[in-house]
Amino acid sequence: VQLQASGGGLVQAGGSLRLSCAASGRTLSINDMGWYRQAPGKEREFVARISIQGSRETHYADSVTGRFTISRENAMKTIYLQMNNLKAEDTAVYYCVSHGSFEDYWGQGTLVTVSS
Description:
The chain is an all-beta fold and 116 residues long. The protein is built from no helices and eleven strands. Strands 2, 4, 5, 6, 9, 10 and 11 form a seven-stranded mixed sheet that branches.
């Protein structure tokens, strides 16, 4: 599985960005996909996850609940992360991940910088 993330950039606090992640390759093995992020000097942390098989069950980190929305477009094997009301503490490299029956795959990161 290959994951291609895009959509990062520089935005002012209170603004919005939308990240995309397109999966290719053996995508039938994917159970769910999601986003993690890593801020400078901090460990990578969970942001959001969405199921790919069946229901569109979603999970969010407490820190982004109510501000971020994860969605999917199965035909294109693509997920999105709509980020609203961004805060300076959302500044991080965001990584797309796919969780499969046998292993996980990570995409390259996309940098999100929120200026206060």
